[in-house]
Design a protein that fits this description.
This protein is an alpha+beta fold. The protein has 2 domains: 2-54, no CATH class; 78-225, Pseudouridine synthase I, catalytic domain, C-terminal subdomain (Alpha-Beta Plaits), CATH 3.30.70.660. The protein has 5 helices and 9 strands, in the order H-E-E-E-H-E-E-H-E-E-E-H-H-E. Strands 2, 4, 5, 6, 7, 8 and 9 form a 7-stranded mixed sheet that branches. A two-stranded antiparallel sheet has the order 1-3. It is globular and about 55 Å long. The model has no long low-confidence stretch (mean pLDDT 92).
Length: 226
Amino acid sequence: MVDKTIEFITGHTDFRTLGCGRTDARVSADDFVLELFLTKSLEALSFLSLLNKNLPSDIRALSVTETTAEFNIIQQAKVKEYHYYFSFGVKPHPFSAPLITDLGEVMDIDSMIAAAALFRGIHNFRRFTADAKLDKDFTREILAIEISKSDRFNSPSDPENTYVLKIKSKGFMRYQIRLIMGGLELLGKGKLTTNQLEDYLTHSNGEAMNNIVPGSGLILHRVRFG
């Protein structure tokens, strides 16, 4: 949609965009950054105004900054922070579904909070990705991860019992966060022990985690450079 809007504004297709951070279907973003490659310069403020005038109502452009040909948005992104919002227990109002995943039955949230720390640090995440190719490097470093009670959503239709998984890394693989959250969900429902969950990290050659949570609870919260 962004590419179509830029094409409409500029009147040509002689450009290319490169996004930083995956946004799969139903995944939202507080802060998404993309690099726009053009053969002709443009005036940043007027371009920003035209973007917001023509983008659909669920996308808002915050700023436009000129960069250099040497800048690479993928390589120079230092930290990506995602949040996954979920609730459990009493089924919530359907209006909350686009941003908060209902995980259903009551869960052992204390065990989930404690087990989240297992993922911190450098691990082989082959069993936590949907792109398990034999020649791929699955080593990633999780800089920070925690589960806590969330107070972000406060409308009458939002569930009171809402939690958020916050996770930071330089980069993530396909479905990695949703599969990590899926493992923690199984733990919270008593379908997986802490030792079994840890085994997914320490023995990378086993079967992949098969519980992927919906994309609707996932939000790209922040991308940091420098």
